[in-house]
UniProtKB/TrEMBL annotation:
GO molecular function, one term: ATP hydrolysis activity
Matches recorded under InterPro entries: ArsA/GET3_ATPase-like, ATPase_ArsA/GET3, P-loop_NTPase
Name the record gives this protein: ATPase
Domain ArsA/GET3 Anion-transporting ATPase-like span(s) in chain numbering: 21-178
Pfam family, one: ArsA_ATPase
Length: 342
């Protein structure tokens, strides 16, 4: 699998060596949260400590890890393969605002009074850019945080970010707060966040399926990030199905040259059909399935070629036979590790 510069460098352990903040975005329905969770597990492998941050308040992380709803605190939720810990933080903009008031003004108690009055909710509603600064600011602080010995608290941070259509605006916080504050703590805080998310320590990864709409949204998102000078990471192609049939069969089915009678003879010879009529009916049904599979395979190949034109690393993740349960999550983590992402 190609790395971010077009090929694996022998001196690098992974494709994203040096990246500490992995932002994961994707169109709804592509498995964004599941991939973000699997990436966190993969990054934590080998006795590392990783923080998985959810910013949309959907409790998606809790659902993926089959846990009760998570509070607004950093809490250990999983052990990675081979050792290593995954912590999670379910972001709450209101609590983040209280932290902000405490950090910059020392008035958290007054902030709680404002919360009861509905002022904070009002402020973040009329100024969504401020809400994004608070959420991304909390994540950026975790990236920079060190313990008393000077060691970084977390080896990596994974953010389960908003969908692709909103990702550039969500991360481009300096521009978003320009109309709110041109000087002072809010502006300084936004600049700090921008310094993290626009740095080589950050990579924004996309999750997509080999379907027209999510692929197009991915390409649009990559273009928007590049325009905003934000760091583009890789593309996780999720739920990839094995081809399963020889190339010659797929080509014949796509060109409507598939021989149903030959298939019927094969079914009868194998003892899978009773009589000529039965074999013919089964062969017709199978041929229809093969034709649809061939069409889907051809479409997926075209979409893959389109993605390759974006010039970013592509990582195939398998369609989970047992579904995206906890066991499947660890299976995806192993696939991510195997492909050199983490």
């Amino acid at each position: 699998m190609s790395g971010p510069t077009g090929g694996k460098n022998a001196a690098r352990d992974t494709d994203w060596e040096g990246v500490r903040l992995h932002v994961v975005t994707g169109k709804g329905g592509t498995g964004k949260t599941t991939v973000a969770a699997a990436l966190a597990l993969a990054l934590a492998a080998g006795n590392r400590k990783v923080l998985l941050v959810e910013v949309e308040g959907r409790q998606g992380i809790a659902q993926v890890f089959e846990l009760p709803p998570l509070p607004y605190e950093e809490r250990k939720i999983a052990v990675a393969p081979g050792g290593g810990d995954v912590y999670a933080l379910a972001m709450d903009p209101e609590e983040a605002m209280l932290d902000y008031l405490e950090m910059f003004y020392g008035i958290k108690r007054m902030g709680k009074a404002l919360t009861r009055m509905g002022v904070i909710d009002f402020a973040t509603t009329i100024a969504p850019g401020l809400r994004d600064v608070l959420v991304t600011g909390k994540t950026s602080e975790a990236v920079r945080r060190r313990d008393k010995s000077g060691k970084r608290v977390y080896d990596a941070i994974v953010m389960d970010a908003p969908p692709t259509g909103r990702i550039a605006r969500f991360l481009n916080v300096t521009q978003e707060v320009a109309g709110l504050a041109r000087v002072g703590p809010v502006k300084n805080h936004a600049d700090m966040v921008r310094g993290v998310v626009a740095s080589p320590e950050t990579a924004v990864h996309f999750v997509t399926l080999l379907e027209e709409m999510p692929v197009q949204e991915t390409l649009d998102g990559i273009a928007e990030l590049r325009t905003a000078k934000l760091p583009v990471g890789g593309v996780f192609i999720n739920m990839v199905r094995p081809t399963g049939l020889p190339e010659a069969v797929l080509e014949a089915a796509s060109a409507n040259r598939f021989d149903n009678s030959e298939l019927a003879l094969g079914l009868k010879a194998a003892g899978l059909a009773d009589g000529k009529a039965d074999a013919s009916l089964i062969a017709d049904a199978l041929a229809q399935e093969i034709s649809e599979h061939a069409c889907r395979t051809e479409l997926e190949r075209r979409e893959r070629e389109t993605l390759e034109g974006a010039g970013v690393p592509l990582y195939d993740l398998p369609l989970l036979a047992g579904g995206a349960d906890l066991a499947g999550l660890y299976e995806l983590a192993e696939a991510i590790h195997t492909r050199g992402v983490a």
